């Protein structure tokens, strides 16, 4: 079974840092780009970042550029999202997502990990 | 880059058809046939309903269909059922941010 499991969320003060991790199983991890999508409480979906196969290319939303860093370890089938200089507007449920059967559609979603930025 | 624009809400009676629009700036929807649609029930992760404008993943009901015209993509739900009541989001592959989501539409079955 294809599965994504996020971890690392929690409560952090403004300006602080947090590292999210996504652990994958059930498919050939190295063959797929991995994406992060977030959803603030009661709000819509917001694209955050992605990393290509081999980690060659990375992409970030303007709102997180320079503060978040995405990386992958194909030997461990994990993707990390290092978040720094966190702001209250970064408070959200962070999903790890991939497109297994669709190149440009996200058909596998994790359960999400909640990040709360508050003093 | 701003989110794609969707109506805040759309409603219909059981058995009716409804259409949700998704309007984007030119670099997103117009130049790429890479629009996807997601259904999200409360407390659940989103579910892919349509990819690449009109491709339906395995297991998705044929009552869901997608289309695109100029700078507007659309999701049509035919034969509306109570379980279709959910939030729906479009998403497009664009140049500047790779992917951008729509503002979301709440579908209510009357």
Overview of the molecule:
The complex is a heterodimer of chains A (119) and B (110). By secondary structure, chain A is an all-beta fold. Chain A is built from no helices and 11 strands. Chain A has strands at 3-7, 10-12, 18-25, 34-39, 45-51, 58-60, 68-73, 78-83, 92-98, 108-109, 113-117. In chain A, strands 2, 4, 5, 6, 9, 10 and 11 form a 7-stranded mixed sheet that branches. Chain A has a 4-stranded antiparallel sheet with strand order 1-3-8-7, with no helix packed on it. The N and C termini of chain A lie far apart (39 Å). Chain B is mostly beta strands. In chain B, 5% of the residues lie in helices and 44% in strands. In chain B, the strands form 2 sheets. In chain B, strands 1, 3, 4, 7, 8 and 9 form a 6-stranded mixed sheet that branches. A 3-stranded antiparallel sheet of chain B has the order 2-6-5, with no helix packed on it. In chain B, a hairpin with a 6-residue loop joins β3 (35-40) and β4 (47-50). Chain B is globular and about 40 Å long. Chain B starts with 8 loop residues before the first strand and ends with a strand. The mean pLDDT of chain B is 91. The interface between A and B is medium-sized, with 23 and 29 residues.
